[in-house]
Write a structure and sequence with these properties.
alpha+beta, 5-stranded antiparallel beta sheet, 5 strands, 36% helix
């Protein structure tokens, strides 16, 4: 009786781990493509989460604000298309040296194919 439960638990943990790895890879690629070269941060990723609370108009505002961050090339390049709900959230702590630390939140589409917006916390 315990074997099916344990097997299902292991399969569920494997799936969550794969999603986490995919999100970290997507966010890492986005940062590699959009961060200015002189801002070479080490990155620490948190566990993923999701939200229905970020609207399309909020995504537009986040994108406009992101173009003001000096660490990023402008304009920031996003993949085209409308964001699908729920958005997946990934928080990243980035450190350049002992004195410079930046916390950011990235929003990804439900299919985990692209970053749709981000903000500095």
């Amino acid at each position: 009786m315990k074997k099916p439960f344990v097997l299902l638990l292991l399969l569920g943990l494997t799936f969550v781990g794969c999603e986490q790895w995919k999100v970290e890879r997507l966010v890492g690629n986005f940062l590699d493509d959009n961060l200015k070269k002189e801002y070479d941060f080490s990155r620490k990723y948190n566990d993923i989460d999701s939200t229905f609370n970020v609207t399309d108009s909020m995504v537009d505002v986040l994108r406009q604000q992101a173009n003001k961050y000096v660490e990023f090339n402008t304009p920031i390049s996003y993949e085209p298309g409308k964001a699908t709900r729920p958005l997946i959230i990934e928080r990243v702590r980035m450190k350049q040296d002992d004195s410079t630390q930046t916390n950011m939140t990235f929003y990804l589409d439900k299919e985990l194919t692209r970053v749709v917006a981000f903000k500095e916390n």
